[in-house]
Amino acid sequence: MKFFVDTADVSDIRSLAETGLLDGVTTNPSLIAKAGRPMVEVVKEICDITPGPVSAEVTATDYDGMMREGEYLGRIAPNVVIKLPLTEAGLRACKHMVNNGVMVNVTLCFSAAQALLAAKAGATFISPFVGRLDDIGQDGMKLIADTVQIYRNYPALKTEVLVASIRHPIHLIEAAKMGAHVATIPPAVIRTLYKHPLTDRGLESFLADWKKTGQSIL
Ligand code: E4P
Fold it and tell me: Would you kindly state where each structural domain of the chain is located, as residue ranges?
């Protein structure tokens, strides 16, 4: 499973990239707003840090505007993925961009029908939002299970399931069990993945016993 980080915070991305576990980055207009910096500058810096796919989202809502913004964003770096909303105009733009060799991440997917449409439009990635569905009392993980199953039924569909709006490690583990291709994870959730109290306790007791031996490895 590929791990993307869901942030526009360049220092977070830099430190996560140093672990060697980072496969890509997703941003959205809210994350760019939170970073408080010009979008193009941020996306360029992120693309310099990671060779993996970096999603940059259009803000136009009409087909022509999406095509113009997508072309502009795509010039930032070869690893930019154009992020388009799951609307009729968005999928039309997706089809055209993909036909021209551009990678596309279709975002704001909340139903299996939408995921099927995005795959038919040739999206490189589909981003179903699990946390936001959970927030309104629906089962976000069911959408992942349904999407993975539908795509498996039609091997000609090459779209990768990019699980988005992840709130905690259980979302990630369940998505991995279902066989989702990618997860985009907030930095804070990535850091919790390392943690287990028995790891901390075990390390503490190993080091205490080691100290008693009076030895050092080097
Ligand atoms: C996906 O690409 C989105 O940026 C993201 O996962 C949204 O997550 P949120 O629901 O936590 O805002």
Answer: 2-213
Mean pLDDT, all residues of the chain: 98
Using CA atoms, how far apart are residues 67 and 11, in angstroms rounded to an integer? 30
Sequence-distant (≥ 6) Cβ neighbours of residue 6 within 8 angstroms: 25, 26, 27, 31, 164, 166, 184, 185, 186
* Superfamily (CATH) of domain 2-213: Aldolase class I (3.20.20.70)
216 is written with which tokens?
Answer: 């050092």
Eight-state DSSP code of residue 69 = H
Nearest CA residue ID for atom 10, ligand 1? 165
83 is catalytic: yes
The token pair at 198 is 């028995």
Task: Give the span between the Cα atoms of 80 and 105, in whole angstroms.
Answer: 10
Cβ of 105 closer than 6 Å to ligand 1, yes or no, is no
6 Cβ below 6 A of ligand 1: yes
The pTM for the full model equals 0.96
Residues 6 or more apart whose CB falls under 8 angstroms from that of 4 comprise 22, 23, 24, 25, 26, 52, 53, 55, 162, 182, 183, 184, 185
Structure confidence by residue, pLDDT tens digits, 93-137: 999 999 999 999 999 999 999 999 999 999 999 999 999 999 999
pLDDT of residue 185: 98
Q: Is 127 in the pocket of ligand 1 (CB under 6 A)?
A: yes
